[in-house]
């Protein structure tokens, strides 16, 4: 469980009813097990309010029943925020929340998880950046405000979060040569996660986005991670861009806040169309698949039916 507070602001509870804090000596074995399922279960970025991340193999969601009796580590009578998490986990969590405190999932946003599965497509030949106009270089702490201003969910992710990420994790920006204005950026997040590339409107349609995505994907792989991104279902441009670079859809995810004591007549959040994903196995999204798909030409940034096929 991951709360958005510093250690001196919160009491560390070492043991709950069914869960315990992992000892340092136990971490290697735990990570070996979790690596079988990343990024099926996603750990959320810290927030200034409470947040929780749940790791559970999506084909073993019955194990989440242990949460029902966890009244020490969970404050069921307060809102509980969860970042983008497998829909099967969210579906099960809403069932539990409704049963315990007549709660519901509120303000939910869907995001498709795309995982890099086709290494050959990452070598896609791209037009070079105009050397006399822009330059790509690593992001630094001085760029944080511009990064946050461009981020579409800036009301959710704080400026301090981006300061922490830029200090600890790699990212690239495309900068205007004349005045060093940040035109576009892409940044690694937790594990192999990558923030979706953002470009200022006046610099769009110049190919900066795919240049950034390609460079950062290669770097994330070099650092030993499996790259993945969260793409909103309606974002055809991002889906087409990352598909060209070898990313394939692994599963649907949801972000939202579980609210206790909802109206007695409230209906369950409409996750039913994704309920079959509760049976998704780790093998179905394994990064070890070999891609045999050729990159289609003339797609204008939108994945063709052939590209949407499985590797």
From TrEMBL:
<dbReference type="InterPro" id="IPR016181">
    <property type="entry name" value="Acyl_CoA_acyltransferase"/>
</dbReference>
<dbReference type="InterPro" id="IPR000182">
    <property type="entry name" value="GNAT_dom"/>
</dbReference>
<feature type="region of interest" description="Disordered">
    <location>
        <begin position="274"/>
        <end position="311"/>
    </location>
</feature>
<dbReference type="Pfam" id="PF08445">
    <property type="entry name" value="FR47"/>
</dbReference>
<dbReference type="InterPro" id="IPR053225">
    <property type="entry name" value="Acyl-CoA_N-acyltransferase"/>
</dbReference>
<dbReference type="InterPro" id="IPR013653">
    <property type="entry name" value="GCN5-like_dom"/>
</dbReference>
<dbReference type="GO" id="GO:0016747">
    <property type="term" value="F:acyltransferase activity, transferring groups other than amino-acyl groups"/>
</dbReference>
<protein>
    <recommendedName>
        <fullName>N-acetyltransferase domain-containing protein</fullName>
    </recommendedName>
</protein>
<feature type="domain" description="N-acetyltransferase">
    <location>
        <begin position="134"/>
        <end position="266"/>
    </location>
</feature>
């Amino acid at each position: 469980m991951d709360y958005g507070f510093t250690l001196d602001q919160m009491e560390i509870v070492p043991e709950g009813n069914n869960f315990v804090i992992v000892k340092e000596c136990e971490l290697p074995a735990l990570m070996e097990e979790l690596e079988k399922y990343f990024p099926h279960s996603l750990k959320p970025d810290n927030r200034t309010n409470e947040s929780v991340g749940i790791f559970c193999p999506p084909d073993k969601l019955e194990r989440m029943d242990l949460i029902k009796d966890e009244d020490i580590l969970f404050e069921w009578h307060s809102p509980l925020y969860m970042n983008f998490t497998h829909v099967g986990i969210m579906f099960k969590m809403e069932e539990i929340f409704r049963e315990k405190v007549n709660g519901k999932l509120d303000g939910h946003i869907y995001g498709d998880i795309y995982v890099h599965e086709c290494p050959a497509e990452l070598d896609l030949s791209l037009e070079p950046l105009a050397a006399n106009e822009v330059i790509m270089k690593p992001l630094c702490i001085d760029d944080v405000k511009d990064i946050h201003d461009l981020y579409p969910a800036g009301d959710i992710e704080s400026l301090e979060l981006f300061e922490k990420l830029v200090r600890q994790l790699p990212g690239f920006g495309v900068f205007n040569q004349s005045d060093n204005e940040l035109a576009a950026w892409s940044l690694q997040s937790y594990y192999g996660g990558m923030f979706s590339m953002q470009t200022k409107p006046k610099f769009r349609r110049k190919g900066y986005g795919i240049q950034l995505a390609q460079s950062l994907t290669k770097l994330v792989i070099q650092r030993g991670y499996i790259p993945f991104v969260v793409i909103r279902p309606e974002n055809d441009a991002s889906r087409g861009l990352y598909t060209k670079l070898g990313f394939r859809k692994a599963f649907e995810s949801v972000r939202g806040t579980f609210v206790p004591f909802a109206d007695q007549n409230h209906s369950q959040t409409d996750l039913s169309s994704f309920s079959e994903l509760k049976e998704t196995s780790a093998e179905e999204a394994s990064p070890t698949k070999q891609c045999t798909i050729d990159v289609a030409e003339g797609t204008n940034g939108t994945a063709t039916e052939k590209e949407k096929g499985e590797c």
